[in-house]
Here is the input.
Amino acid sequence: MSRAPANAFDAGPAASNAQKTLFGHPLGLYVLFFTEMWERFSFYGMKALLMLYMINHFFWSQADASYLLAVYTFLAYATPVLGGLVADHLLGSKRSVLLGGILLSMGHIVMAFEVTWCFYTALALIIAGVGLLKPNVSTQVGSLYKPDDPRRDGAFTVFYMGINLGALFGPLLCGWLQLHYGYGYGFGAAGVGMIFGLIVYMVGQRSLVEFKQGVLQGEDQNGEKTKATTAVSPKPEGVPSHVARDRIIVLLVVFAFVLIFWTAFEQSYNAMLVWADKHTNLLFTSLEPTPVTLDSAAAETDPDVQVSFMTKAKDWFAAPGLNSIQTQSINPFFIITLAPIFAWFWIWLHKRKLQPSTPTKMVFGLAMVAVAFGVMLPAAQREAGPSQAPLAALPDAFGVDQDGRIFTTDSKNGEQVFYGATRLRYDADDPLLRMSGVLPDLDRLKILSETAPDDFRKAIKAIVEKSAALKKGAELTEVLANAPAGFAIVGDEAQKITAWDPETKTLAVSAQIGARAEVELLAATADPLLKAAVDGVYVDSAKHRVTIWWLILFFMCLTMGELCLSPVGLSLVTKLAPPKHVGVFMGGWFLATAIAEFAANMFGAYWGKMVPWKYFLIFIVMCSAGALLMALLIRPMKRMMHGVH
Here is the structure.
């Protein structure tokens, strides 16, 4: 039973003469364009920051960060199914979008406060906000037009461009702010962007003149950034039962391959983001990576010296490039540039009666993802260059397995923890510390902190607990009588909130000590011989960071696969699903995407536990096998589609 609208927030007038137009489309389309653009700006800006925020700032392990990201992304992509039901039966689409925008704005702003409870609260608010806003904005685009309006295709194309503009500029701006001012500013920018979108939506309410729809509207994508499908034309109800059954079976098979595709694709925000951060030379014009800086050199910089925007801009033009967070803008850049080419190409093939079927296009999509990860194999081979440094003896805190790989034992679960993606080895015969590939900065700090004296470790732990109660503007001072000779604070996080007086051996603390700052304080007491060897390997291995052009080529191939699979897959759902159940099967598509997000990040937990080329090989095999299997199923699938192309 339908619910009568209570006011303008539930429905607009149904008369076409009430619509004002701009460039041939209702003004409401542009309201939704900017609303969705800013929502995607905030969502993808935050998503690009998220993984590195957990491992670099909170100093979580790759596995722990991946597990949380798995739960967050699953819920963020699954809740729109519930959000659609809430809009249909309780709030209406306009109120759902408004409430979702408010929750999203609150979530991104809360995320700007760099403490753990704010982090979890923000994620919960963002999940709820996405669930309410995302499906209902897309539905309203179709509602601006009558079911047979020929402008629908163009409308969804405009809307899709807004999604990709937001996805393009979100990581660029949020990544720039994080680099120069910190994570809080990056998350804050995402919040401000969502507030802009909310203001646009509220101001533009009168432009959202909607028509009643006979059938469900097509979504813009799988909640993502590829070309949107358009509204569904009314379909005859008299489909024979065996035809409906066969088509449903085809859809279930498609969902299985969609799951494989997005599981590989979503490595972009996990393993590939860490690869960009730790293993990639991010300069466009230089094959020589920027040398890494040790703590001793970093400590000499004056934190009070402010660098102007113009100076930063001048430095960028002198050595243009991206930071690791900004690499997440490469995919939407290729979507924007390649989507028109693909659209033209499909039409060109259709005119010549060479248009491949939808299952065939999806085979190409899976194959291109396999090619994308294949591109990373030679990149991983180039990255795996040798580095070494003399080390007379390995401290007792470390073990060495039969292959010479260095490990420590996790006190919580008893598991062996290897370093440098299992590639850091100790050769007792030479004796040398050896590394194949780049030693990440996080591994360096963890190794150095392992040799901190037990009494000093306990003293730091006690200070960490006391610092949790510090109020703003207060300071904690503690005498560290057991600090070793020559102790000096190193590391960016520890330097921001602590000060050391070597004469009185007093540590002054101005804010809560987080996990990274704690490890940096412990690392400052590392065994001198071990520190010299680890620092030598760390600096020398950094020269093996590979050019960003490998990553650009990876994203280009990945985007080509996305354009082959995602939009045509969504269109296939609207064609094959029984007319009365299109929404259910569209929800199935989104649920498959949500499960793939979860699976992708569960795979991400294994990044760093194996050498990079083996990790990339997993997805080459997975997508190649998926493409081959689907290719074998093309004929029976086409037969069971009963005339749908």
Observations:
- The radius of gyration is 27 Å.
